[in-house]
Specification:
The protein is mainly alpha-helical. It is built from 19 helices and no strands. It has a single domain, classed as Phosphatidic acid phosphatase type 2/haloperoxidase (Vanadium-containing Chloroperoxidase, domain 1). The chain is globular, with a radius of gyration of 20 Å.
Length: about 425
């Protein structure tokens, strides 16, 4: 269930727009790349597919109702047709959510020691993303937000051909095991939000944020709203968990899926409801949680069964091998474009202040290398660990903390790691 506060009135936009110019710069090339992943893309094929994804989401949200209403949004979850919940329940698997929530809080404890200058810079990045967003970015942000309880948002990262196969199979209920397992693997950020208790950006005194109206899902022009604490982002945690697990099942598109999670996180800033710090923290805990589950033999058995069903259904819909179906498709496939690697690198830190820290080695936690097993099956466990170290971002950025685990999960760049071996 999602909880909400009202955002500030849209009239603040013009009054405060000039102030955003003083914020840490979001490069113009990043903004241009983001627009290629929205309904305002210049590629007609991509826009048409985005329209299909949008309509599939609306149909799923409204269920048997004649029309989608705002009251329905907080009550939506994957239907029994889309997700094989009976199969998952019969397995008796214990996700041990409370223990994983506490592990996440410990992993993110460095948040409490961040200097005011870093928090201020984080606020400025939100303001710039929110005020300078294009109409396409705003529409996509609402679609992303309201699609949190479903997997539709991942379809465009699979490319036009495989993405269409995924959308077809998902709507037909042919990938129900994967749909059920992936969503059940999400570990709520509610406990962390309550622990850190940091206000949302639009609640900060003197903020310049404006409301983003819903012209894409319910289409009633009501401003998108949110509440609970800001840190970390629950929606972004969802995106990273879902994208990582689907990427392990469909490693042919691992990097575009991981980059889609980063792109989804950016939408939270467009809506003015999260800071970049929140997005970074959610990436860290989601990566940690997925690795934890994949190292559990009982979970792995469920994962393998779900993966087999998923890949069989996708291959059937494609009418060819997944390797062929997953091939990049030019401008109709922006998540496979080189520019997305640049955005993904930017999203690792959002160019927040980097502290001068004593150079420290990246220590890979036991089992973390499992995250590279899907896309890089030919490498040994030790080789994957070495690759995680060699591709890690620089130290000293927010949330890198004081422990080896904090340092590792904050600096882990999965997109770069896989890209280094695929070039």
């Amino acid at each position: 269930m999602r909880f909400r506060y009202s955002l500030l009135a849209t009239t603040l936009l013009l009054a405060h727009f000039a102030q955003a110019k003083n914020a840490p710069a979001i490069p113009e090339k990043i903004q241009a790349t983001l627009d290629t992943t929205t309904p305002a893309s210049g590629d007609a094929r991509f826009v048409a597919f985005e329209g299909q994804i949008q309509q599939s989401l609306i149909d799923a949200l409204k269920g048997d109702a004649a029309k989608l209403t705002r009251a329905q949004l907080d009550k939506t979850a994957q239907s029994d047709k889309l997700a094989d919940k009976a199969w998952l329940k019969a397995s008796g698997y214990d996700f041990d959510k409370k223990a994983n929530q506490q592990a996440g809080i410990a992993l993110l404890s460095a948040f409490s020691t961040l200097p005011k200058s870093t928090l201020d810079a984080s606020m400025q990045v939100v303001e710039q993303a929110n005020l300078n967003a294009t109409d396409g970015q705003r529409r996509q942000a609402v679609i992303d937000a309201e699609g949190q309880n479903h997997l539709f948002f991942l379809a465009d990262a699979l490319g036009p051909k495989l993405g269409q196969a995924f959308l077809n199979a998902y709507n037909k209920g042919e990938i129900g095991k994967a749909a059920a397992l992936i969503k059940a693997s999400e570990v709520s950020t509610g406990a962390a939000k309550a622990h850190f208790n940091y206000p949302r950006p639009f609640l900060m005194p003197g903020n310049t944020l404006h409301a983003v109206p819903d012209t894409s899902v319910v289409k009633d022009n009501q401003p998108y709203q949110a509440n609970e604490g800001s840190f970390p982002s629950g929606h972004t945690n969802t995106a990273w968990t879902d994208a990582l697990l689907l990427g392990e099942m469909v490693p042919e598109r691992f990097v575009p899926l991981v980059d889609r999670a980063a792109r989804y996180g950016y939408s939270r800033m467009v809506l003015g409801v999260h800071y970049p710090i929140d997005l970074i923290g959610s990436r860290m805990v989601a990566q940690r949680n997925v690795a934890h589950y994949l190292n559990d033999a009982n979970y792995q058995r469920l994962f393998d069964e779900a993966k087999q069903q998923l890949r069989g259904a996708l291959e059937k819909e494609c009418g060819t091998t997944l390797a062929e179906c997953a091939k990049p498709a030019g401008e109709a496939d922006p998540y496979a474009a080189p520019q997305m690697r640049q955005f993904a690198h930017f999203a690792m830190t959002y160019q927040l202040p980097q502290e001068r820290v004593k150079k420290s080695a990246v220590t890979v936690p036991e089992g973390a290398e499992v995250l590279l097993e899907g896309p890089l099956p030919h490498l040994s466990a030790q080789q994957r660990r070495q690759l995680m170290v060699s591709s890690a971002i620089a130290g000293g950025y927010p949330l890198s903390g004081t422990t080896p685990e904090q340092n590792f999960w904050q600096r882990l760049d999965l997109s770069a790691a896989v890209g280094m071996r695929q070039r």
